[in-house]
């Protein structure tokens, strides 16, 4: 970012861009981002740094005989001198586009954020003030225990300013922290992983994670080969999060009504009201959920199946997607809600699964006769959208449980499962806790999930992955 950009506050950039607009409607989104990170390998820090940046998105809308068209242009490191070319580019894009299918009147009436004119929030290396010494202690313990720690800690703070030609002036500060820790044996033959999501690194202790990983490396000293097949399986919260995040990404109401997803009802319509699980599972999103707070209004840089640039600033309420085991809501924009006749249900910034369980994962292991305990999933890909059949791999530790005790590490597997089917077959849900999705952490980190017991998880083939 240049010094000129640094001197111009984001709310001023938003106001100037709106003043320059000659379109029929305009939305301006300024994202001010700062990040701080630590990386380590072999029980020693390798890199650390702090970065800052600005991205400005201008959405111009132009009314025509056939309807309203939109043009969207985003650029980074925007200065005051860049504003007029950016606004004109968005207007030119709108005038050259066909009428937007999702066109709606721009949102009005949302009260202005009281801190809209304040400077953006910023993170710094100070966020690691307590974490870094604890990490050093974890390194010392790992060296003494004959294991090596690898991983990274990343903290970002994004201040988003949304202004519109209809008078909205909204601002949201989103902190987001991730910690991923791998422990390896010196010969690299054993590996274990743990991850955490955090807002400020005050609620994560690397020494606790190191102790957890030490136990898992101990389990891996005994190797057991198992064939592909269906096994009773304990899915930890991180694996449940990865599966259900993908499920929610596939929960657009319009796609369901048009018969293209697992939530489409045979013969027409949707599966809303249908029981998806025998357990009293409630899958919900809430922008005010403690520790998982997210934007209370829509921030849409582009339009898609579950988002519309015309909805910027629309309030995002707490929503129950599945209630007591029944499908209750599908995601809609104002446009798709009108097409489907369903309530407006904007996409979400967090995801929480409550199952009424109180048991920890360790307690669920202790009550397992024979089954598998997973660490995490990765390389998840969709096979069939009609059933939401997914495939992927296990990673960093699959353990065999016998008579309530972990007896060794088994080989990795490729799995083939639909998260919707898993919900219908789950026989037990543990205690809900904050978790970090392993596969989707680059895009989605705010989740709280229980462990799930699946009586017959489909391990379709043996994998040689680690």
Task: Summarize the helices and strands and which ones pair or pack.
Blueprint: H1 3-7, H2 10-20, E1 25-41, E2 44-64, E3 67-76, H3 83-95, H4 131-144, E4 148-164, E5 169-184, E6 191-198, H5 206-219, E7 223-224, E8 229-235, H6 237-249, H7 253-257, E9 282-285, E10 319-323, E11 326-327, H8 334-340, E12 351-354, H9 361-366, E13 370-384, E14 389-402, E15 405-410, E16 412-417, H10 419-425, E17 428-429, E18 433-435, E19 447-449, E20 452-463
Parallel strand pairs: 7-15, 8-13, 12-19
Antiparallel strand pairs: 1-2, 1-4, 2-3, 4-5, 5-6, 8-20, 9-10, 9-12, 10-11, 13-14, 14-15, 14-16, 16-20, 17-20, 18-19
Helix pairs in contact: 4-5
How would you describe what is shown here?
By secondary structure, the chain is an alpha+beta fold. Strands 3-2-1-4-5-6 form a 6-stranded antiparallel sheet. Strands 11-10-9-12-19-18 form a 6-stranded mixed sheet, with helices on one face. The radius of gyration is 24 Å and the shape is globular. The protein starts with a helix and ends with a strand. The relative contact order is 0.14. The N terminus is likely disordered.
